[in-house]
Design goal:
Length: 563
């Protein structure tokens, strides 16, 4: 009876959602852009990757980024804007809208080049004011300021100082100089030598008309920015000590993603790749010496041994600015690098960049995963089905690893990670149903000092792959510690004690308005999906149901009945 009741409701909501969606498509047609939607499945994949990395310090996270000069703010785009010859193409609105779309696609970092023209900061080579750019960025940060959508963004700034024509210096740093990365082979730790003579740097930095601190404070909410001062405070260093930020950074610990986004409510870190500004002229900028910044090709070896894995993970902010394709971007990321794409695009073909960005952004889940599911509806039909558990699929032939949603009732080896060394793995001796972990503890599954776990960085995933290769296993599907049992499609690490963090936002607030920054249509779909899983799998009900399921399983296991 109750199930039927729920089903009737579900159908009602499916209908309702469908209507909303159709309406939405209709009303969004005027403003439709060529940018592809971020599908609900992709959003779930990106969000679950963010969530499992909560405990990682922000300097070790993967960021897929772009060089905005290379892909958008360039001469080709200027020409295309003139050819288009509409009000929005000529006054820069198209530029900013497309930048906004890039942010909504989920980029994690960007390089922006700026120059001073007639005592004002402009984006290099365009007539776009830096202030308008910052306002656009701020709109994105405001719209995505919720536990559902918030993520960290790295802002790399390159400052070019234009000298007046009568100056004797050969001073204008041209685009070619910047982008011709083949001629640059710079290993970071010394400041990038892109900027001009020290004297003019100082002039710019202190020129009140070019006060970039004031510009930031006037055009965006500076509370989003994590400053050098914050890093010092978090490490209990006093400002009084005469240490510069690079020195502090050598011994400082960066905050974890969780404390960065939810604890401190920060969203963005600004680093100046040039060295025009300093700590006193611009307290929002980190110096480039905090980065391990490579151009063209990496100077770091791809780790192969336990020791190499440990060594590379002591290096902070491993960034590689280069041209990539959909294959090698993954390779570089597996070696622990954060790519910044400099492939040539322009405003006419910028949307074609999305497959490249996505192939970097979604590093864990396989294609079209995590597939959407509603466990209750399935359980109603067949009590031995619950597509709410994640397995790692290893293919021996090409050594590929990807995560796939599977039926929690299936019996598989379970993945164990060393408690003291995240690059040491083991598999459970026996195959287990996913519930075994819920019903028991690590010691039932994993060897001593190991715990049921999952790879939470690409380096860890690479070390796992090497372990599997060494073990000479054939194709294998392994349970990893990730499930959406509490609420379908909300992927969490752990057991039934863990609650979906978005559940409150769903019930307490207008879900739709929180999702506006993400592409509108998929937002509606996501609401439908999450709403459906909440309607048909209320938490309390689900827990009871869960206990019953677990009891049933343990009973059948005790009786030795195979499924
Ligand atoms: C650019 O032009 C469009 C259309 O006329 C207008 O809506 C927009 O406000 C303008 N933007 C700026 C920055 O002037
Ligand atoms: C992006 O640029 C294109 C080409 O100029 C333009 O048609 C479109 O309106 C811009 N905006 C967005 C959101 O993509
Ligand atoms: C840029 O700033 C420098 C230093 O303040 C100044 O000498 C130069 O004239 C400025 N250039 C322009 C085009 O305003
Ligand atoms: C972001 O949202 C949180 C709560 O939702 C709020 O406390 C915080 O002040 C907001 N941040 C900014 C910069 O508005
Ligand atoms: C880039 O630098 C290389 C090596 O210095 C040079 O051979 C090449 O012509 C440069 N390319 C451009 C477009 O300037
Ligand atoms: C780039 O730097 C590496 C390490 O410093 C060096 O071994 C290599 O020869 C350099 N390559 C070029 C083209 O200068
Ligand atoms: C820049 O602006 C900030 C904030 O308005 C101010 O505190 C600072 O003194 C200014 N710096 C200079 C060099 O004018
Ligand atoms: C800084 O001090 C606080 C309070 O004394 C402490 O909880 C925190 O662990 C310290 N942080 C570091 C990095 O030492
Ligand atoms: C970093 O820590 C080490 C060991 O505690 C110490 O010797 C060194 O002086 C510190 N470096 C800085 C820049 O504080
Ligand atoms: C980058 O360097 C690696 C070795 O460090 C080399 O195998 C690879 O071919 C290089 N890639 C390019 C594009 O130069
Ligand atoms: C995009 O357009 C630019 C110039 O308009 C061109 O150089 C580039 O090759 C194009 N990129 C792609 C992927 O089509
Ligand atoms: C587990 O770790 C503890 C502490 O590091 C160690 O004393 C013990 O020998 C380890 N056990 C095994 C089986 O490796």
């Amino acid at each position: 009876m109750r199930i039927r009741h729920h089903r009737a409701f579900s159908l009602l909501y499916v209908g309702l959602c469908w209507l909303l969606w159709v309406n939405c498509v209709r009303c969004s047609q005027d403003t439709s852009s060529a940018w592809p939607d971020v599908t609900v499945v992709e959003q779930n994949a990106i969000r679950s990757e963010r969530d499992i990395q909560n405990t990682i310090t922000v300097d070790q996270l993967p960021y897929v980024g772009v060089n905005l000069r290379a892909i958008l703010f360039n001469d080709e785009s200027n020409q295309e804007n003139i050819d288009t010859n509409t009000a929005t193409s000529l006054n820069g609105t198209d530029y900013l809208d497309n930048f906004s779309s890039l942010l909504n696609q989920g980029i994690g970092s960007f390089i922006l080049d700026i120059e001073n023209k007639s005592n004002t900061w402009y984006i290099l080579g365009t007539d776009l004011l830096l202030s308008d750019f910052l306002s656009t960025l701020n709109v994105f940060l405001d719209e995505s300021n919720s536990s559902l959508s918030a993520n960290i963004v790295l802002f790399f700034l390159r400052v070019h100082v234009n000298m007046p024509d009568d100056s004797t210096e050969d001073s204008v740093v041209s685009f070619q100089d910047i982008l011709n990365t083949t001629s640059l082979n710079i290993t970071r730790k010394t400041p990038l030598a892109l900027s001009k003579k020290k004297k003019s740097d100082k002039e710019v930095a202190t020129d009140p008309m070019l006060n970039i601190t004031a510009l930031i404070e006037n055009n965006m909410n500076a509370a989003y920015i994590y400053r050098p001062e914050d890093l010092m405070e978090d490490n209990n260093f006093t400002m009084g000590t005469n240490l510069s930020v690079p020195a502090i950074d050598a011994n400082a610990t960066w905050p974890t993603l969780e404390s960065f986004i939810y604890g401190k409510r920060k969203r963005i870190i600004v680093t100046e790749l040039s060295s025009v500004f300093n700590q006193s002229t611009s307290p929002y900028f980190f110096p480039n010496s905090i980065l391990h910044f490579d151009q063209q090709n990496t100077t770091l070896d791809c780790p192969n041994s336990q020791e190499q894995f440990r060594n590379i993970s002591t290096i902070k902010w491993r960034i590689l600015e280069s041209q990539f394709d959909t294959t090698n971007i993954k390779q570089y990321m597996k070696c622990g690098l954060s790519p910044i794409v400099t492939n040539p695009y322009s405003i006419g073909n910028i949307t074609k960049i999305t497959p490249l960005l996505k192939s970097g952004m979604i590093w864990s889940w396989g294609p079209n995963e995590p597939r959407l599911s509603n466990s209750r509806l399935l359980m109603g039909k067949d009590s031995m089905q619950a597509y709410n558990c994640a397995m790692l699929k290893y293919i021996a032939a090409d050594g590929s690893t990807s995560w796939v949603v599977d039926n929690c009732y299936a019996a598989r080896p379970m993945l164990c990670k060393n408690k003291y060394d995240p690059f040491q793995w083991a598999l459970s001796e026996e195959k287990h149903k996913y519930f075994t972990f819920y019903n028991g503890k690590d010691s039932d599954i994993c060897p001593d000092n190991y715990t049921f776990s999952l790879p939470i960085t690409q380096l860890e995933q690479r070390s796992l792959r090497l372990y599997l290769e060494e073990s000479e296993v054939t194709n294998l599907n392994i349970w990893i510690n990730l499930n959406s049992i509490a609420v379908s499609n909300c992927w969490l690490i752990g057991n039934r004690g863990v609650a979906c963090p978005y559940q409150r936002s769903v019930s307490k607030r207008n879900f739709v308005s929180m999702l506006v920054p993400v592409v509108v249509i998929s937002a509606f779909l996501l609401v439908c999906v999450l709403y459906l899983s909440l309607i048909s799998v209320p938490i309390h009900d689900n827990r009871k149901n869960w206990r019953r399921v677990v009891n049933k399983i343990s009973k059948s296991e005790m009786e030795g009945v195979p499924s």
